[in-house]
Write a structure and sequence with these properties.
This protein is mainly α. Helices cover 37% and strands 9% of the residues. The chain starts with 8 loop residues before the first strand and ends with a strand.
Length: 415
């Protein structure tokens, strides 16, 4: 059944509008014949005219709204998908006058939506995209414009913390947030340019042991033990080290490392192409630079977690398969998500481990301090070492390109 769309134009409406603008030398019928048969700007569907090329339709809508964009926020909240390109095109035009672009976004971000619960979050992401694509942050801002920027950031932060929107839209919103300044603790830098690590405290297991590994592990064959290697309180980062954080290390030290490929290089995506030695160099540098105080006492040291520390932080005391329990979709960036790459850290709030750490399943493989042993029973204390000696080191957590079986808490790999 045919359903009339907003952009469809009945013949009578088109003729009436052309009568208003056509002069005596040409008739509406001639104009319609030209734009349909010769120019191909419209197509005739039994007396209903449509734009055959949606991009041109969106461009024309944006041109109309350039003159008076006051109605665009209402239209956008009514149907974000239909009006998104018109909004971006109109915003790009107004970006030549930054005050006009900020005014457009201020109205859009504060427009109330009575029909679509997702539209406020989608609109915030669109505003962030507009800011990035037009490079608006290069221009000085008024107090009101800074308030608008804060409101956009806060809405997208809400999306990530509370897992709002379907995954593709949530990941895209996080990507654009990285471009306008992600305010979440633990993903960026401190005021003095150091990585802002958000530490999750981990207390030793009650009774001194926890279940490590799996019985009859068909993947690693390392077996299951009652591990007694966690004897002191420690802390683990809430998120994997981000591109921006690792870049601060490179900038400060001149360290040479393999670059992140295109599509994996957003400031709040986890840093990839990091060797075990690269990771250890980052830890040593940050440990030296970290201001000492109550939260980071003089005797504290930043290093990679041991394999036991990593697994206990990921699964806690109940030998769960995944950081949250049993496998469920939308809790980790594994092959099943079909994102096809890493996404911003913390995009899966429902995937938190017992200590609060995120992205411990999927996303990127995570290095451990421990040298590889073929079974947990064969572990020896000297395997937890920081020697630069060429040995295989433990990797944990799986990645965006691995199926969810590889992302289990007990699964181990080496590199």
């Amino acid at each position: 059944m045919y359903k009339r769309q907003v952009a469809d134009i009945p013949r009578k409406d088109l003729v009436d509008k052309l009568h208003e603008i056509a002069d005596d030398s040409v008739s509406p019928k001639q104009i319609i014949a030209y734009v349909v048969d010769r120019a191909g700007l419209l197509s005739d569907h039994g007396g209903i005219f449509r734009f055959p090329h949606r991009t041109f339709q969106e461009y024309m809508a944006a041109r109309y709204l350039w003159r008076d964009p006051s109605d665009l926020p209402r239209l956008l909240h009514g149907d974000v998908e239909r009006w998104r390109e018109a909004f971006l095109l109109a915003g790009a035009r107004t970006a030549k006058m930054p005050y006009a672009a900020w005014n457009l976004m201020h109205n859009a971000i504060h427009q109330q939506s009575s029909t679509d619960a997702e539209s406020p979050w989608l609109v915030a992401a669109l505003c962030a995209q507009l800011i990035c694509e037009t490079k608006l942050l290069r221009h000085p801002r008024t107090e009101l414009q800074n308030d608008t920027l804060k409101a956009i950031r806060a809405k997208i932060e809400n999306i990530l913390i509370n897992g709002r929107l379907p995954l593709p839209e949530r990941a895209a919103a996080g990507h654009w947030l990285g471009g306008i300044g992600d305010p979440r603790k633990g993903v960026g830098l401190t005021a003095d340019g150091l990585p802002d690590i958000d530490w999750c405290p981990v207390n030793p297991p009650p009774g001194g042991t926890f279940v490590m590994g799996e019985k009859g592990d068909e993947f690693t064959g390392k077996g299951r033990i009652n591990c007694d290697r966690i004897r002191a309180r420690y802390a683990i980062a809430r998120y994997p080290v981000t591109v921006a954080q690792f870049q601060a290390f490179i900038k400060a030290t001149g360290y040479e490392a393999v670059e992140s490929p295109l599509g994996f290089d957003g400031p709040t995506q986890p840093r990839v192409n990091v060797s075990w030695r690269d990771a250890m160099a980052f830890c040593r540098w940050l440990s030296e630079k970290m201001p000492r105080g109550i939260t980071f006492p003089p005797e504290a040291k930043i290093t990679l977690p041991t394999e036991a520390q990593w697994e206990f932080a990921a699964r806690g005391t109940d030998a769960r398969d995944y950081p949250w329990g049993n496998w469920e979709e939308n809790r980790a960036n594994t092959y099943e998500t079909k994102l096809g790459k890493t996404c911003i850290v913390g995009a899966f709030p429902k995937g938190a481990s017992p200590c609060g750490a995120l992205d411990m399943a999927g996303q990127v493989w995570e290095w451990c301090l421990t040298a590889w042993a073929d079974s947990h029973a064969a572990f020896a204390p000297n395997l937890d070492n920081a020697s630069d000696r060429e040995v295989r080191r433990v990797l944990r957590g799986g990645s965006w390109n691995d199926n969810h079986g590889v992302a289990r808490c007990a699964y181990g790999n080496w590199g």
